[in-house]
Each structure stands twice: as C-alpha cells, then as structure tokens.
Design brief:
- This protein has 463 residues and is of the alpha+beta class.
- The chain has 2 domains: 89 residues, Nucleic acid-binding proteins (OB fold (Dihydrolipoamide Acetyltransferase, E2P)); 312 residues, BirA Bifunctional Protein, domain 2 (2-Layer Sandwich).
- It is 24% helix and 25% strand.
- The chain has an 8-stranded mixed beta sheet with strand order 6-9-10-19-18-17-14-12, sandwiched between helices. Strands 1-2-3-5-4 form a 5-stranded mixed β-barrel. Strands 7-8 form a two-stranded antiparallel ribbon.
- A hairpin with a 7-residue loop joins strand 7 and strand 8.
- The radius of gyration is 27 Å and the shape is elongated.
- Bound molecules: aspartic acid.
- The site of aspartic acid has 9 residues, from strand 18 and strand 19.
- Homodimer.
C-alpha cells in the first residue's frame, strides 16, 4: 500500500512504499540523499548503495522510516524529524532535464516558456499552493451559498451576445451556415431570466469570455467569476451577503490575512474620485504588508458615461454609454432625469474593491420593460440591435421580480488577496498576453474539411 510523504512521521520503524518525484538529489560520496515529492509534501530518503534516480524522475521506493538524530532534523519541512532508508528503488518514468528550475518562485522566468511547459511550472510549490487554495475557495463559496438556499445553475456557453462592454468571441454554426454563436461575456441575461423563472437565489462559478486586450488584472480571453443574483432584495442585501461571504472565507482559508476595516467602507463614486482620483482606491494602511486586505465598496456611480471610442458596441449616434452595463437600474429618484439629463442619473451599481483592484461589480437591475426600452434608446440601439434583446423585454411582460446581483472575479480576488502580480499566477492554463493558450498553442488553423462544413472561406492567412 502507498504511504504519502507526510504520513511517514507517524510510521517510525515501519517499512513503507512511497511513490512520487525526485525533488532533489544530493550525492555525498558513498551516501545519496533523495527528496521524494508527492501531493502531500516532501520526505528525505537516504541510500548507501547506488540509487540511479535523477531529479524529477518518477520513482517507487520501499524503505524503512527512521527517526533522525536530534542534530540532523530539518525544521523547515513537516517531515524533518524522519528520513526513509531506501531498501529498494524502482524508476517508473525517467525525466529529461527540465527547461527551467522549479524550486524557485518562478517570477523571473519568461512567461512564454512557463506557459509552454505549464504542467512543469505547476510543479513549483507556489503554483501548486495557489491552485489548491483556489479549489478550497471555490468549495467554500459553494457551501456558503448552498447553505443559504442558493441554487447552482449552469448556463449555456454557446449562446448569443451578452454585452459587458467587450468584443465577443464568435463560433460558427455548422447546422445553420453563415450564423454564429457568441461565447458569453457573462451569464448576465440568463441569470436575470432565472429570476423571472422564480429561482430567487442563483449562483454559478461561471466562465466568461471577452475578446479584449489583456491587462494584469484580466487574462486574455476567459476568466472565472462567482456569478450571483437574488430577487426581492435591496442593494444593501447584496453588499452584506458579499461582505459576509468574503470575510468568513478569508478567516477560514487565509488566517494569516487581516482585513483593514469592517464593516467595509462604502464610498460614493463622486467622493472617491475627488479624494483618490480613481474608483478603485487602495485603502490599505500599510501597502508593504502583504497580509493586509482592504475591501471597500464604490457605489452611486453615474448610470451613463459619455460615449467614447471604446463603446463600439452601442449605437454610434448616441451621446451616452452604460457605465456598468445596460441592465443596471437607474436610481428611482433620478428616473425623471433620464430624458432631460441622462448623464446626471445615478445607477444602482456597486463595485467591490480590494487593495486597489476592482474585484467585482454588480447592480440592482431594471425590471420594467419601459425603462429597459428607454435605456436601449438612450445608448443608441438601432431597431436591429434592440431586436437582439427582445427576449428580455418579452420575459419582462410575464411577471418579473425586482432583482439584482454581483459577480466577484475568482481569479482577480485570488490575485489581489495573494498579492500575485497577475491573474495568470492563479490560473492553471492561462492564455498568454499575446493570446496564445498554454501548452496547446491555440489559436491554430482549421482543417479544410472543417471550413467547408462551416461554409467558411478564409481570405488571408498569415504564414
Ligand atoms: N454581469 C456583470 C459582470 O460580469 C456582473 C453583474 O452585473 O452581476 O461584470
């Protein structure tokens, strides 16, 4: 039976079988030290005979667990009080020399090469820890919400455009040549439809796709967010739930971190811009303290911004574009300003800020057909564009509860909380900043038959 490295401390005097990788090999003349690494950690093994295994080989070892003499213990590793005297060693699979070291934090290694050999990069302990923590974070979120009567629902990936202000990825349809699906920029419309459907409390660990230029807090192409939506609630309910969720998550999974201020400060967009010149202020007291987490809310955003070149998606003749997205509700006191002075209308948007990063955003939504229609007009939608959202307006004629939600980014939260320099450090197989996928090297050309089946002719291909 296999024993894990971490279990050896409880097996002094016993013969064990270990399986894993050779983490390091140290030759001291007639004695060889091998550190074996498995998912539980590392244990030192020692042999006085020849042991041919080299770094990163996968091995199986039978050996005797021995207590190390007092002066030979290694307090740096949990198994530092024992070592395994090798009886027999079998090389299961040999490893070539790795393209880069994995016993460092890896920040100084070129991204392209880390990405090409991501499966090796993940062997480094920092990456390994990040992915394990990420898994725990997702499990914590899931349990927290399920305990509070939320329903987890998967929404389609092959869908129609869901504008969040970025460019869509489109997927050609084989069955209806000349037509395309869009990958969702978020499940925004589906989650609102699920409120019409009466679920009242929805969440999803949702993959979102946006064809926008990469930034350090956003990987190119895709990212994951906790998407949630609730009915019959106020904005305050959303803020309180989110605060409780993340505060208890930090307390349980990141006990070394402390939160600067609770309850989290809620700052109006106007004040925050005046005081900090940004809507995502870094409110840490000590910016050198890597264990400080300064959460805050930015609220009372204007519903619209002046339209800029980046708002290519909306009607080109319009003066305004949504500052969050087109489903955000105007402040009820400002509805009369929609016609007169739309730029003065406040929106019921809330942004979640952590250490200077926007890690989530959401809003109370429009649930009246007329108001939604008016917003479509104000952002300059043509009748054709409006038609693309007809299903929302139709749904709103069948009894729609007031609703709202939020979508904290999982990658972004982890990046900000761990102080990692990029979201890619908390993703298993991120796309590089030039849009190349890890290891598999997509995008790549499609085969001739595939293109024929799709009815697509590619005009020019860079060679
Ligand atoms: N759909 C929004 C986003 O992805 C979040 C929300 O409004 O709930 O940013």
């Amino acid at each position: 039976m296999r024993t894990l490295a971490a279990e050896t401390v409880d097996k002094i005097g016993q013969e064990v079988t270990l399986q894993g990788w050779v983490n390091t090999r140290r030759d001291h003349g007639n004695i060889v030290f091998l550190d074996l690494r498995d998912r539980s950690g590392i244990v030192q093994m020692v042999s006085t005979k020849t042991a041919d295994a080299g770094s990163e080989d996968v091995i199986e070892v039978v050996g005797l667990v021995k207590k190390r003499p007092e002066n030979m213990t290694n307090p740096k590793i949990p198994t530092g009080t024992v070592e395994v005297e090798i009886t027999s060693i079998k090389i299961i699979s040999e490893a070539k020399e790795l393209p880069f070291p994995i016993d460092t934090d890896g920040y100084d290694i070129e991204e392209e090469i880390r990405s090409k050999y991501r499966y090796l990069d993940i062997r480094r302990s920092r990456m390994n820890k990040n992915l394990r923590l990420r898994s725990k974070v997702v499990a914590f979120i899931r349990n927290f919400l399920l305990e509070r009567e939320f329903v987890e629902v998967e929404t389609p990936i092959l869908t129609k455009t869901t504008p969040e202000g970025a460019r869509d990825f489109i997927v050609p349809s084989r069955l209806q040549k000349g037509k395309f699906y869009a990958l969702p920029q978020s499940p925004q419309q589906y989650k609102q439809l699920l409120m019409v459907a009466g679920l009242e409390r929805y969440f999803q660990i949702a993959r979102c796709f946006r064809d926008e230029d990469p930034r350090k807090d956003r990987a190119y192409g895709e990212f994951t967010q906790l998407d949630l939506e609730m009915s019959f609630i106020t904005q305050n309910d959303i803020l309180e739930l989110t605060e409780k969720l993340f505060s208890s998550l930090v307390a349980e999974l990141m006990p070394e971190k402390h939160i600067t201020q609770t309850p989290w400060p809620r700052l109006s967009h106007k004040k925050v811009m005046e005081k900090y010149g940004t809507d995502k202020p870094d409110l840490r007291k000590d910016k050198n303290d890597k264990n400080e987490l300064a959460f805050s809310w930015t609220i009372d955003f204007p519903l619209f911004n002046k339209q800029s070149k980046e708002d290519f998606y909306y009607g080109s003749g319009a003066k305004v574009a949504p500052s969050h997205h087109m489903f955000t509700a105007p402040h009820p006191d400002d509805i009369s300003l929609l016609d007169k002075n739309p730029l003065k209308v406040r929106g019921l948007q809330h942004d979640l800020v952590l250490n200077g990063f926007e890690v989530g955003g959401g809003s109370i939504r429009i649930h009246q057909r007329e108001v939604q229609d008016k917003v479509f007009d104000l952002i300059g939608f043509t009748p054709m564009q409006k038609k693309q959202f007809e299903h929302m307006l139709t749904a709103f004629t069948y009894g729609v509860p007031p609703h709202g939600g939020i979508a904290p980014g999982i990658d972004r939260f982890l990046m900000a909380a761990l102080g990692e320099p990029s979201v890619r450090e908390v993703m298993a197989f991120p796309t590089s900043s030039s849009g190349q996928t890890s290891v598999m090297d997509a995008p790549s050309e499609a085969g001739k038959t595939q293109l024929v089946e799709l009815g697509i002719t590619v005009k020019s291909q860079k060679k």
